[in-house]
Amino acid sequence: MALADPSYADRLRALRAELARRQLDGFVVPLTDEHMSEYVGAYAQRLAWLTGFGGSAGTAVVLPAEAAIFVDGRYTLQVREQVSADHWSFQQVPDVSVAEWLGEHAPQGARIGYDPWLHTRAWVRQAEQALADRGATLVPVDANPIDAVWSDKPAPSPAKLVTYSDELAGKNSAAKRAEIADWLEQRNADAVVLSALDSIAWVLNVRGGDVDHTPVALAYALVHRDGTADLFVAPEKVDDAVRQHLGNSVRVHDRAEFVSNLSKLGGKRVAVDPERAVAAIFDRLEAGGAKTLALRDPVVLAKALKNDREIAGHRAASIRDGAAITRFLRWVETECPKGGQTELSAAAKLLEFRQATGALVDTSFSTISATGAHGAIPHYHVTEESNAPIEPGQLFLIDSGGQYLDGTTDITRVMPIGEPTPEMRDRFTRVLRGHIAIATAVFPAGTLGGQIDAFARRPLWEAGLDYPHGTGHGIGAYLSVHEGPQRIAAPNYPGGAAMEPLRARMMLSNEPGYYKAGEYGIRIENLVLAVERDIPDGDRPMLGFETMTLAPIERTLIDPSLLTADERAWVDGYHARVAEALGPELGADERAWLALKCAPLQA
């Protein structure tokens, strides 16, 4: 029963009718794709189509008489703006999980459907256990029921695969596959399934255009103990140049043949990542007689430890991007107080400055251009409907990034439109102090990211304040703007505890914030690189961070009296680096403006 252009209420009604036709009493709708991606192609935006929610993380559950949408603290305000409370209840994770809610709300004896290509095996087991207490069952579907009622569902992207040069990658694919072969040998495994799109792109030194803002292609791969690989991708995406780049050791198959090839691995020991591979992959392997080994994708850590060429590329991208950001901040200060500018016009202007570099491939995520109360929504996404004018008395927050061939950037800055209030300056300075605490942290190698998260929060905690998101995420090298396994976050924030030991060469964001609902938002974000620190007379290997992002931090929002001498010295030192690195990229008037922004703070 396809619908032409239904309202969200009609879409929910159509889905319920389709579920009834299939003799299902409910269905779970996660925001992901068959690769467990965070950002997904238009064809996989089922949650947005059904509910109107435009965030990057969430899940919906539809039952015959009620429906719920689950989001974390980043989206508490956004979900209420975008999703009708007439039809949906709002649930916040981790306070309540989807499985727990199902265990309390599913009708007795219900059959709850799920798509096994969109959930991990761990989630399936958790939900099955919760439903069993109500005599209900979890039922895998062969075809997603939303697809049956989504009449104008976009087709997967037709974008071509492209090669990524060994020079930019810093290591060729053969060397990367040889390391995976050694990893398989050590675990007595015959092959590993790679289903994470960025893992495949990194191993094969290819990129794609199938997901907005992330240069990856829809594909699967099997890497074998002999260092060869099978790549499963739509054949029309692969041209002769890509085939030559992949070489004879990488066999190319139609993506549609992936499932049948899993069934041919009977008797083999196959490594599969339980966090990144969907339940259906485990099911197909085991049904075919393979022995599955639940092991983390070996690419995840290798990709996180940036090599010299990737680091050098990011340094170059940071200078290029920082100059574009500086031009934009000058434009905001000059033009926005005059009136006539909006969140959308500001985002367009920043894109214009980045495009003027001649090196921008794409933005690294949808720009968060937020003024006034919208700034209090951490992952706000401006639309034509929500677009607000930038007006005096507001704080304007811009969180954005660029995809360049030599690096992926992510930066947040805040600008006052006119004179900031004393409260705004106090909150901004506390966020800055937390940012400095991470930037200057020294800690033993192997420290967990979750162990240093509180460094950033202490200045806010001292005033009875906090922020509802993690402090830092990993970042890719011309890949995903959010990359694991490293994170800086406490256990009760989105994504769970950051339990990965921090190692030299990991790159992360440093982005504490503060959000006053209905009024303004503050976030200061730079990217940092974990580096070794030599501590005289120390007896343990120590790490610290080198700040990679280069752009001025708005000095009119800083209250120097709230900073210690060391904190003021950090700001002055950082701004001296910014002026030195970006000056040659700017015109005379721009350099003069930057010099004023980077002048030493007065105590």
From TrEMBL:
<dbReference type="InterPro" id="IPR000587">
    <property type="entry name" value="Creatinase_N"/>
</dbReference>
<keyword id="KW-0378">Hydrolase</keyword>
<dbReference type="InterPro" id="IPR000994">
    <property type="entry name" value="Pept_M24"/>
</dbReference>
<comment type="similarity">
    <text>Belongs to the peptidase M24B family.</text>
</comment>
<keyword id="KW-0645">Protease</keyword>
<dbReference type="InterPro" id="IPR033740">
    <property type="entry name" value="Pept_M24B"/>
</dbReference>
<dbReference type="Pfam" id="PF01321">
    <property type="entry name" value="Creatinase_N"/>
</dbReference>
<dbReference type="Pfam" id="PF16189">
    <property type="entry name" value="Creatinase_N_2"/>
</dbReference>
<dbReference type="InterPro" id="IPR036005">
    <property type="entry name" value="Creatinase/aminopeptidase-like"/>
</dbReference>
<dbReference type="GO" id="GO:0046872">
    <property type="term" value="F:metal ion binding"/>
</dbReference>
<protein>
    <submittedName>
        <fullName>X-Pro aminopeptidase</fullName>
    </submittedName>
</protein>
<keyword id="KW-0031">Aminopeptidase</keyword>
<dbReference type="GO" id="GO:0005737">
    <property type="term" value="C:cytoplasm"/>
</dbReference>
<dbReference type="Pfam" id="PF00557">
    <property type="entry name" value="Peptidase_M24"/>
</dbReference>
<dbReference type="Pfam" id="PF16188">
    <property type="entry name" value="Peptidase_M24_C"/>
</dbReference>
<feature type="domain" description="Creatinase N-terminal">
    <location>
        <begin position="11"/>
        <end position="143"/>
    </location>
</feature>
<keyword id="KW-0479">Metal-binding</keyword>
<dbReference type="InterPro" id="IPR032416">
    <property type="entry name" value="Peptidase_M24_C"/>
</dbReference>
<dbReference type="GO" id="GO:0070006">
    <property type="term" value="F:metalloaminopeptidase activity"/>
</dbReference>
<dbReference type="InterPro" id="IPR029149">
    <property type="entry name" value="Creatin/AminoP/Spt16_N"/>
</dbReference>
<feature type="domain" description="Peptidase M24">
    <location>
        <begin position="314"/>
        <end position="530"/>
    </location>
</feature>
<dbReference type="InterPro" id="IPR050422">
    <property type="entry name" value="X-Pro_aminopeptidase_P"/>
</dbReference>
<feature type="domain" description="Peptidase M24 C-terminal">
    <location>
        <begin position="541"/>
        <end position="601"/>
    </location>
</feature>
